[in-house]
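Support request, please re-run this one:
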Amino acid sequence: MNILDVNGLKVFHGRAQALRGVTFHAREGEIVAVLGANGAGKSTLLGTLSGIYAAKAGEVYFKGEPIIRQSPGYIVKQGLSLVPEHRQIFNDLTVQDNLLLGAFHRYIKDKGTLSEDMERVLGIFPALRGRERQTAGILSGGLQQMLAIGRGLMARPKLLMLDEPSIGLAPIVVREIMEVLSKLREDGTTIILVEQNAAAALRVADRAIVIERGQVIISGKPSELVNDERVQHAYLGRTGGHAGNVAVAFGY
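Re-run finished. Output below.
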């Protein structure tokens, strides 16, 4: 069953068209990777799904309901949460306060359950435990990314969107974050993962789409994409004649 359906999405930034009829879907409990170069429209896509940008045309259905013209606050309440690029945590606030801000939309109604939610986040990211009173700005980049994801989880999302979570992080931290995403999927969370690190994304994704100049040019299972010469050349750093080696490296 699809939890998200995007049909013919067109978005402009001023006179520049950022998305040119993007169509794709996400099923419940899967990871969909969105690949593409800088300026391809990946962040605009997530921003539009979150209600940050207005669409010129197209439709978006989340859990069968239209959300294309709804506010960001409304969309979060429906169960769709965005972890933005460059983390965008509040540096002067504590780790605990940053996490609580992720649940701002239900702070009064569900105040009694917030400690339980925070405990869940600390269980997912044990490196944050004991740092609840620390100022977020002094954390390492990896811990800040964990905090940003944890803040998104505090909204109790059915669908979690992440914009370049691996950017600027050491490979060992990237692996840890990708492992967390896999576990969240096992727990039933649907994930849309925007990444330039195609190798990391394709290892955890169930399906993937590639966006160029605001259009979806390739879509399919990771096993299909790693054997596509366009993907190998543009995103995996490979040239012709290495398809078999790439597939073996990814376990396909």
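The first strand starts at residue 2 and ends at 13. Residues 171-186 form the longest helix (16 residues).
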